[in-house]
Amino acid sequence: MLTFIKEILTWWNRQTLGTRLQTIFFGKFVGEDEFGNKYYENKKRKKRWVIYKGEIEATKIPVEWYSWMHSIKNKIEETHELKKYDWQQNHLSNQTGTDKAYNPQKNQDATKKKYKTWNN
């Protein structure tokens, strides 16, 4: 019951009631990525949306689905499978606010002066 009330009153937890109704009545399931996000479009192919698994964060959309979401034509769009090379890293969502975020204090080379001032 609490989940249903959250769905009606808040948009930041998951999908809202309006999104759920639009998905049921007008949505056509297109696919799912490796993170569990589900992608839909309406039957007239004019609007596309994603239902995130877990927390809503736009950076959770991998590159295979990014072009599809923004209606950009490319050869990946048909299969939604991207050929991964050995040097490519796996997709990471935004790391800001976590222990994995970039911090110049942890890296001493980043805070060290790279030049000498002319007053010395």
Care to describe what's here?
With 120 residues, the chain is an alpha+beta fold. Helices cover 24% and strands 12% of the residues. The protein has a three-stranded antiparallel sheet. The longest helix has 10 residues, at 17-26. The mean pLDDT is 77.
Estimate percent helicity: 10-25%
Rounded to an integer, what's the Rg over CA atoms?
Answer: 21 Å
Percentage beta strand = 5-15%
Quote the average pLDDT: 77
Shape label: extended
Task: Count up the helices.
Answer: 4
Biggest β-sheet: count, sense, barrel? 3 strands, antiparallel
From N to C, what is the helix and strand string?
HHEEEHH
Alpha-beta classification: alpha+beta
Number of strands: 3
Low-confidence stretches: none
Please give the order of strands in the largest beta sheet. Answer: 1-2-3
List the helices and strands and how they pair.
Elements: H1 2-9, H2 17-26, E1 27-32, E2 38-42, E3 48-51, H3 63-69, H4 108-111
Antiparallel strand pairs: 1-2, 2-3
